[in-house]
Hints:
This protein is an alpha+beta fold.
Amino acid sequence: xxDSEGGIDTCKQTxxxxxxxxxxxxKSIETPLVLETDQAAQIAVVMHKVMxxxxxxxxxxxxxxxxxxLTPGNVVLFRGDRFRVxxx
Length: 88
């Protein structure tokens, strides 16, 4: 990303690994966005958490029609675990 106060040089943000050790490694993502440092750091942490959760794999669930209001991106609790809705 480009720091809004840093000129034309690209900048880097990192996210420390949590105590959850399901995965290890490094991922680099480049973006043409101009962001403030705090915004970029927050985005890096959120993206890191999403990548960790995606390592859990998929779960397909059929729900009754009263759950029709769910849309992709919603997070639901099912049997004590959190899941993000990818498609409906």
